[in-house]
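Predict both folds.
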Amino acid sequence: MEAIKTLVRHAYENVPYYRKLFRSIDLRPADISSANDLRKIPILTKEVVQKNYRDFIGTKNIARVHRTTGTSGKPLYIFYDMRDFDGYLIAKASALLKKFVGITKNDRIVNTFAYGLVQAGLEYDLAASKTGAMVIPTGTGLMAGHGKTLDAIVEFRPTALFATPSYALRLGEIVEDSKLSSRKMKIERAMITGEPLTEAARERIEEIWGAEVYNVWGMTEIGAGAGECSEHSGLHVMSDYIIPEVFRDGATCQDGEGELIVTTVGRYSMPLIRYNTRDIVKLSTKKCACGSGYPRVTFCGVRSDNMLKIKGSPVYPVQIEQALYEIPQIGDYRIVLKSGKYGDYIAVEAETRKEVSDIKKIKTDAEDGVAKKCGVKVNVKILKPGSLKKPDEWKTQKFFDLRRRSV
């Protein structure tokens, strides 16, 4: 593939990190001529990019700087020149919206993603505009205020909602509290990204909005990466721009289950070769029923870097969410990891969506559901609606690690 050869040659000649890496392992650009040959290059981790991010810059005319949210640690800065910003980041996201989410010039989109150093708001704004759609750039409640967002929804009757799972649910609550009906808003599709989407959360969003949910995966490091089509049988990887692999047990392959590894093809201002996303996926190259030959990933809902070990059992926060959201009365929640006399333990606080009388039954159902999903006992405290603080950000922090740290 000529694109791979061009990428590797550019990385060696212009990116200090890769030039040093190639020399240290006695690798030359001529040694890489196919996707399989990329495996000669060591897998790249977020920690390495965070520590050496200036050494990953590959062009002189940097025009834009963005960064990760930092919800899982130290923020990571990403750089673009205008060629890559328009021709890679925005073009890729726009193609995904058209090909798979079905956005057209006839759509009116309320975009609730954050604008600013976090790139999602601007990325999907410009990507949707390239399809000819009308964009209503409300941002999160923190930016526009819920009243202005509701005014825009009522005034323009958007056909599509762009949101994280938590904000789609939060906005639905706000609409209902205002005595309006979210289902009567006539939103046809909800493009959901930015956080893991559990099936229980998908069903709840569809129930609240009456919209078809399209799951889209991406990360600040690469932008929009994969999206569901109308078949909803996995997310199509934008393989014109990203080469996917899965890594498991010390080896990589093009099909199977493992950590998702990606290479950005056609991006030169900050190329990432064999970057470990830490998302656990199943990758398939089988043709989809929609007719697309793009490879598909099915997200297992977990990441290799957020597993908790509780009394010897592996526990993932998304498993707890899935169990909680299977109980119709439960709304927002928080998961807290604490240290106890006999080791670490998990405590959960969960609101009810409306005032209820049988709190004890809901508590029992929630604790039994979590135990069944996770294999550990968890204390669930049931709270009245509105008890939990809800920051008006596009991503809601639901997991808090309050364990005692040794000094």
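Second protein follows, with its predicted structure tokens after the sequence.
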Amino acid sequence: MRLLPSLCGTYPYPNLNKIVLCEWLSAASTYKKSILEEIKSDENFGKYSWNEDQDLSHRIFKKHPGSLFLTPYAKYLHEGSSALARARRGGFPNAEWVCEREVSLPLYPKMSTKDMYDVIQAVRSILNAS
């Protein structure tokens, strides 16, 4: 997968049948904590920005060539995205086990104090309801 100057990425899907090196990754990516401590998200991007995931991963690629991979073997289940995804429940038991126990909070560099307290209040409301 290459990242073009327009920030449009080339992508081998749907014919991806092996692990491939790439120059960028999409938002559904996993990085080592040390990499994210070394290479920060660009704070000039707004709250929800177009291609910020490509920008971050491409900067990681430039600093650490040969470190990004795309695999057809990693799967994730996005709850509520479609009836088809719900129909496949049970198809990815390990990922589903993690998803039932994991919480992802919205965090980004320019998050305002008010937004932070909104997230805290939402988490408290969920915890108090259970």
